[in-house]
Amino acid sequence: MLHRVRLLDEDPDLGADLSPDDFRQARRYAVTEVVDVGRGVHDPSRLGSPDLLGLLVLEGLLIRSVQVAERRCGELVGPGALLRPWDHFGRFAPMPFEVRWRIITPTRLALLDQRITMVAARWPALMHRTVGRAVERSHALALNVAIHSLQHVELRLLVLLWHLADRFGRVTPEGTVIPLKLSHGDLAELIGSQRPSVSSRLATLAARGEVVRRDDRTWLLRGDPPSEVRDMRARAQLPEPDTVDDEGDATEPDLARASR
Predict the structure, then answer these.
(1) Contact yes or no for 181/171 (Cβ under 8 A)
(2) CA-CA distance, 56 to 108, in Å (whole number)?
(3) Who's near 118: CB < 8 A, 6+ residues apart?
(4) What span, in angstroms and rounded, lies between the C-alpha atoms of 225 and 228?
(5) How far is it, in rounded angstroms, from Cα 147 to Cα 159?
(6) What angle do CA 74, 76, 80 make, to 5 degrees?
(7) How far is CA 135 from CA 10, 33, 73, 159, 232, in A?
(8) What local confidence, expressed as pLDDT, does residue 89 receive?
(9) Buried b (16+ CB within 10 A) or exposed e, 91-127
(10) Which H, E and C letters describe the chain, residue by residue?
(11) pLDDT by residue (tens digit) across 172-201?
(12) pLDDT digits (tens, 9 = 90+) for 208-234
């Protein structure tokens, strides 16, 4: 069932780069329709048409899974993500693949129509933020690929869960709570594995006290992230070293310092 809302009331971060006066004016005109979708398998392309800018997730969680041959891998899509489900390039590709959308918690989607496009043209900062949402999702997909490439299922699980903890979690005296009701099958889909393998590894992690399934079916992480993740965090905090290219010339950061 469709109903109309003020987009910046639902997602004020879209207007974070506007001045207070511009925000008030953009809020007045950025009115769009929202549809509520319940749990289960759905085809969001039926909610609109390709002439929309896209569908913006306001609330809820979805898994977009892609199947090639007998293997299926999933992408977790949450609030703030921009979707264009009509752009399904695998339908007629030489190597076809199937895409399935499954809603795991009730979801609200904003239909970004021509009115929103016109408002964004009037206040380009809105378009910048919208495009940023699409880029952010592409970065998350790249991280998914990296997780799928890890050799061991247990490490894939831990890296995924700590990533979800960074994105959705909250720290409590017991540990870090991930307030997502993800099943063993959901986790298997998100790391590109099989459910029995994931269940076995989760049992091992639970026996060590590292991962706990709470009574409400959410997850609790105890202790520290895997050493691989800790090492990456430590490297990210180090200053970037000076480097030279293959010809022995200074790279761009060196040249920038030299010009000051």
Answers:
(1) no
(2) 8
(3) none
(4) 8
(5) 7
(6) 145
(7) 21, 24, 20, 22, 22
(8) 65
(9) eeeeeeeeeebbbbeebbbbbbbebbeebbeebebbb
(10) CEEEEEHHHHCHHHHCCCCHHHHHHHHHHCEEEEEEECCEEECHHHHCCCCCCEEEEEEEEEEEEEEECCEEEEEEECCCCEECCCCCCCCCCCCCCEEEEEEEEEEEEEEECHHHHHHHHHCHHHHHHHHHHHHHHHHHHHHHHHHHHCCCHHHHHHHHHHHHHHHHCEEECCEEEECCCCCHHHHHHHHCCCHHHHHHHHHHHHHCCCEEECCCCCEEECCCCCHHHHHHHHHHCCCCCCCECCCCCECHHHHHHHCC
(11) 999 999 999 999 999 999 998 999 999 999
(12) 999 999 999 999 999 888 776 666 655
Determine the Cα–Cα distance for residues 4 and 11; give it in Å rounded to an integer: 14
Greatest mean pLDDT among 10-19, 35-44, 68-77, 140-149: 10-19
User: By mean pLDDT, which of 36-50, 119-133, 198-212, 232-246 is the weakest?
Assistant: 232-246
Residue 231, both tokens: 């090492």
Assess whether pLDDT exceeds 70 at residue 92: no
Q: Which domains does the chain have, with CATH numbers?
A: 2-148 (2.60.120.10), 150-236 (1.10.10.10)
Confidence of residue 73 (pLDDT cuts 50, 70, 90): confident
Strand partners, 64: 75, 101
If you count them, how many residues does the chain have? 260
Write phi, then psi, for 239 (nearest 5 degrees): -65, 145
Q: By the 8 A CB rule, do 14 and 127 touch?
A: no
The DSSP bridge partners found for residue 68 are 71
